[in-house]
Specification:
The protein is of the alpha/beta class. 35% of the residues lie in helices and 15% in strands. It has a five-stranded parallel β-sheet. The protein has a four-stranded parallel β-sheet with strand order 3-1-4-5.
């Protein structure tokens, strides 16, 4: 996925808390006045937080490195300009952070994920500190607040985020595209429908009964080889992943490439199959 580097001014945007809430909600995180108190900080008392303004000031003068610990598709969809991607799920997560720190000994390292209710950034910071990397902080406001406060320092699908209110897909709109299994199955009976399983190979330990002629295209191949080539835009796409989370980010690619008739299985395959074994 290509990234575009954009040189822009260092002007700090000041907004009221109320104005921050709208884009944060659009990104799909329920942000209330209580939530803005960061409820999980008490669960990680040894993990030092860093606030948005303080991080931005350090980031602007190249004294802080922002690290995205989410999945690849989340990072590719939206992230702060210049953010380093080191997924928390990486087997060599600690080693990669140590290397990053060793090359930047005078810089703060701030880990972020999907905002106030997401724990990955806390876990990443805790793990790094436990490994003896002392210049680490949790940016627990995450991508929702960063994107709403500093849109011109945010990349959405590789381009500058111009208007968060219009460009970010509301969670309510996404939910309307998620169908329960009964409705999902009935929609597949349409002659114009195309059912696509975007799970990884190891996740396909079981089939969903009642779904016929399912195309199996892993997400990492589905986006570049299908969506970005604008294949079958005339069809009604019925897509399911493992737990219904990756399709949240897939929707950005569908919209950007002109797809209008698409639906997702609410909760993914796991909502139907429940506990699953992974293939070896």
């Amino acid at each position: 996925m290509k990234q575009f580097r954009i040189k822009i001014s260092s002007r700090v945007w000041t907004r009221s808390i109320a104005s921050l809430l709208v884009p944060a909600l659009v990104l799909g995180l329920a942000v209330s006045s209580a939530a803005l108190e960061f409820p999980h900080r008490k669960d990680y008392p040894t993990v030092p937080p860093i606030e948005s303004e303080a991080l931005f000031k350090q980031y602007e003068v190249d004294k802080a490195i922002i690290v995205d610990v989410r999945s690849s598709i989340e990072y590719d969809v939206i992230h702060p300009e210049g953010a380093v991607h080191i997924p928390l799920s990486s087997k060599n997560f600690t080693e990669r952070v140590k290397e990053l720190s060793s090359f930047n000994p005078d810089k703060k390292i701030a880990f972020y994920c999907n905002g106030i209710t997401c724990l990955k950034s806390y876990e990443a910071t805790r793990k790094a500190l436990a490994a003896g990397i002392n210049n680490c902080y949790v940016y627990d406001a995450g991508i929702p607040i960063w994107a709403s406060t500093y849109p011109k320092k945010t990349l959405l699908l590789g381009k500058e985020l111009v208007d968060p209110d219009k460009q970010l897909i509301p969670k309510a709109a996404f939910k309307k595209k998620c169908l329960p299994i009964k409705k999902f199955k009935s929609t597949t009976k349409s002659k114009n429908s195309l059912v696509i399983d975007v799970r990884d190979h190891i996740q396909r330990s079981a089939k969903i009964k009642g779904l016929k002629k399912v195309k199996k295209i892993p997400l990492d191949k589905f986006i570049p080889n299908f969506v970005e080539k604008k294949v079958k835009r005339d069809k009604t796409l019925l897509i399911f992943d493992q737990v219904g989370k990756q399709v949240r980010w897939l929707e950005y690619y569908l919209v950007a490439n002109g797809y209008k008739n698409y639906y997702f299985l609410a909760g993914g395959a796991t909502s139907v199959l429940k506990a699953q074994k992974y293939k070896k």
